[in-house]
Design brief:
The longest helix is centred in the first third of the chain and has 31 residues, at about 50-80. The strands form four sheets. The chain has a five-stranded antiparallel sheet with strand order 3-4-5-6-11, with helices on one face. The N and C termini lie far apart (about 110 Å). The protein is an alpha+beta fold and about 350 residues long. It is elongated, with a radius of gyration of 39 Å. Helix content is about 35%, strand content about 15%. A hairpin with a 5-residue loop joins strand 9 and strand 10 (about 310-315). It has seven helices and 13 strands.
């Protein structure tokens, strides 16, 4: 029998064969502990001037964090919420949002960067080995942990690096003020009475929301639905969306004999009634009109209102009727408002007054 048929017979013995002429090989432990490389000191460890430079860098970052926090608070108080600025290449953005975002971001970034630079340049970087131990603790382990904590506290250099200690405490003290200001400022954005007031006032001409032309009674036919807004509002205005969300109205022309509500008849002009277009359920714009029944319907949740009976709710989840806008005809023959809505427009959850 040749060795080609059994090649393993020609290999050196790996089973501790001690026979004369046998070759033995030693296998290296693949899981041997490689140990730790020799520690190389940093320049801050051997040069106090370099350590002072690092200390000044850390203190500078903490100081910038404090200044950014102060700027955040000032911007939150001083910048109007409706002001916008142009930022290339984003375009027009809220001045409040971008200022608060940048200042808070700088404050948090500098705080973190200072902590990292401090740890990497001034704190001890000697690697230490701690052998595994049982889950339960012993008095010796607790004493060791306490000793390690004291040693780590001493290595931070807080005791002798007063500049870092003072600026760090200042930055850590001021950072939470951003959250306090945000929480305390909730009252700043409270709606107050602005939800009860719209862009309508006595003498404001009604203009067609599609053609932007003043509306005349003859422009509105029986059975048609026309959307209108106050004259003077422009889509390019920065607060247009906020204003139209409260001031949008719809006009329907009815035969006087079809109007059941006396107040509705008194507030109309030549059978034309004007009601808020904002559904009193969750504020969706009403767009559907049924000519036969004179019902308007919100497409979101199918709240239905009877335009011949004070726009009261006849179906759906809406909580109350649509507010009516009192209108008349001015000397130029155009439809005009005779005041603002007598009640708040929009969803039912707002208190009425």
């Amino acid at each position: 029998m040749s060795s080609q048929e059994h090649p393993e017979a020609a290999l050196p013995s790996e089973r501790g064969d001690t026979r004369e002429g046998a070759v033995t090989t030693a296998r290296a432990d693949p899981f041997a502990d490689p140990g730790l490389p020799e520690h190389e000191p940093r320049i801050q460890d051997i040069d106090e001037r370099a350590a002072k430079r690092s200390e000044r860098v850390v203190a500078f970052l903490f100081t910038v964090s404090m200044l950014a926090t102060v700027t955040f608070i000032v911007a939150y108080v001083a910048i109007p919420v409706d002001r916008s600025v142009y930022v290339f290449p984003i375009g027009h953005v809220s001045a409040t949002n971008i200022t608060l975002g940048l200042t808070l971001g700088v404050a948090l970034f500098c705080l973190g960067a200072a902590a990292i630079h401090w740890a990497r340049t001034l704190m001890s970087d000697v690697e230490m080995i701690d052998e595994r131990h049982p889950v339960e603790t012993s008095p010796e382990i607790r004493a060791k942990v306490l000793a390690d904590f004291k040693e780590g506290a001493a290595e931070t250099g807080l005791g002798r690096r007063k500049l870092i200690r003072k600026t760090m405490l200042g930055a850590l003290t001021m950072i939470p003020l951003s959250g306090v200001v945000l929480l305390g400022g909730l009252t700043k954005t409270a709606p107050g009475t602005k939800l009860r007031k719209t862009a309508w006032s006595k003498g404001k001409t009604l203009i067609n929301q599609n053609t932007l032309q003043p509306l005349r009674p003859e422009d509105i036919e029986v059975g048609s639905l026309t959307f209108a807004m106050p004259k003077g509002m422009k889509e390019e205005d920065h607060d247009f969306q906020n204003q139209i969300a409260k001031a949008a109205v719809m006009l329907v022309r009815l035969r006087p004999e079809d109007i059941k509500d006396k107040k509705q008849l008194d507030w109309s002009a030549d059978g034309i009634v004007a009601y808020s277009r904002i559904c009193t359920h969750v504020g969706c714009p009403i767009t559907l009109y049924e000519q036969q029944t004179h019902h308007v319907m919100c497409p979101c949740h199918q709240s239905t209102f009877d335009m011949t009976d004070g726009a009261r709710v006849v179906f759906g989840p809406a909580g109350h009727a649509l507010p009516q806008l009192r209108i008349g005809i001015n000397k130029d023959g155009h439809l005009e408002a005779l005041g603002d809505f007598a009640e708040p427009v929009g969803p039912s959850f707002w208190e009425r007054g």
